[in-house]
């Protein structure tokens, strides 16, 4: 299999409300940032792929205007997924594997501020049997948290600890939306408190992928993608064991995550309880605490929907670029209660 | 490093109608997928991954519906990707799926595209609210009509060309049992007398709004060897995009379309598309786009496309049949329309197009476009496996 690496990562500041800037204005500085890091111009890029969602923008074809931020002239080889940008990265990775391109620009953006995110996400549910009940994303995550507590796999004290650790780590992340000591907060949907839930906000991220020697030429220490896989589960919550994530485990297996221990894991866990599920599925608790989990602060510090998964891959890669990690796992999720999951294994040379 | 050759061994589509009230979204996609599996004589267990595409989620009012459709498409425990590249999405989706096989990430992939437009009003779904767009730009026709007018002015084409295309495609649709519109009593005079919607585009020169889905099974050489029916082989595939609006944009013949075709022809070793390609399924939502795309895709010199249409070259029995299936003008579940073009091209080279089969078709082009004439996806499929 062809060697492909993440050679650059950039992201915007993540903010509660970016009403003053359009998607293009939010995205452009990020695109310029990653291109500048590699010395590439837009026209040098072999393939471009993005992830975003019309339901956040509240308009059809919202990604077409974002393309203006790329400067797609002369015309470019380009695609878009209506998914988190992590899956756009997956599509671009496959493109590079075919040999049809040597470099790829991947970006994602999401503005949750124009609508009520909890309400908007209910439109993601089975349109006949579940969506008409409008169960919101926090309520569904709370069901999952309750199942975990009932199964004695976690307790509120552990969840509060995850929240505190995430925001403490985010203090050194200049892009994070929530940083530093925060109170556990009030119960939002029991057993989840405000502190267990991600901030709602707007943001964008981008990475550059490159193959083989091109990657070595573009950066001192490429973050090689040793494995990348994603799996989906049944949609109906009633047929799933919410305390487990078999799709994460399978994706990790297929990505080779269990072949050797990782030193870092960037997990896309918007709720503290979901980190518990993911750590168990990925066997990250079995080690002696040697795995550094979400040093960026994770989605609990900044959760721009549609970009937050790509940011996990970018943050993991950036740690490898900086020499802070030799082998990192990055994870992205989509759908209610971790329905769909992607796992990447990244390594330094 | 050589790519794995990609074969189409299964094709399925639903009956396309204005409103499939008899099925849910899940029922609709499953019907097409089941037919594609049957064609390939495979089961759900033989599928390694699912790649699904559709146009804006607002058409059905379901955000990222692939999450809900995972069960219906047998995707549980498998990778599932959702593509959205506007009107070209059906084509792009097939190309993303093909790359999974070409890169040897997976061996057999189910790809599917759908739209259930009866769940909403597509015309207003496509008319963006202020502040995203100026008012009075009602539907896709409102956007494209001025560009048709520009084509007419630029080439001096007679006013009747559009009606010839519409009449031809609707007649072809009579030979396609899956087509939405079966207008047995349509005449050229009726097309020309139909109400003007967006000048110069008349009602009968406009695509319908359909419910429907299309699915294909893509597989590698080993999969093709096991297939019960002849495969269509992918000889070339490409996507190109350009911005919606910019100074110097040629809406009549966009550069991205030309570049996309050139890339596909290069991969497939096509140097003279007019002679070397036996059938074309191109995305013609408004009749005049046939002559426009004939030029954009290199089948005719600039300004000459309408002459092919007028001379009957693009008829089912012409020497370059265009849209033998009846095309988008007869069937338009938007998200699936591009994949229908790709699938119909594949049916032609497999010799399985039924009453609308083009005799002896060995190489066919599938074409899709979307957005403001800015997203293009194409593939060229052939009867023979590509030389590697």
TrEMBL record, chain A:
InterPro entries to which the protein is assigned, alphabetical: Thiolase, Thiolase-like
Highest taxon, organism lineage: Bacteria
PANTHER family reported for this sequence: ACETYL-COA C-ACETYLTRANSFERASE, NON-SPECIFIC LIPID-TRANSFER PROTEIN-LIKE 2
NCBIfam families, per the entry: PRK07937.1
Protein name: Lipid-transfer protein
TrEMBL record, chain B:
Xref: SUPFAM superfamilies: Thiolase-like (SSF53901)
InterPro entries linked to this entry: Thiolase, Thiolase-like, Thiolase_C_2
Gene that encodes it: atoB
Domain Thiolase C-terminal: 243-372
Cross-referenced Pfam families: Thiolase_C_1
Signal peptide feature range: none
Species of the source: Streptomyces kronopolitis
Name the record gives this protein: Acetyl-CoA acetyltransferase
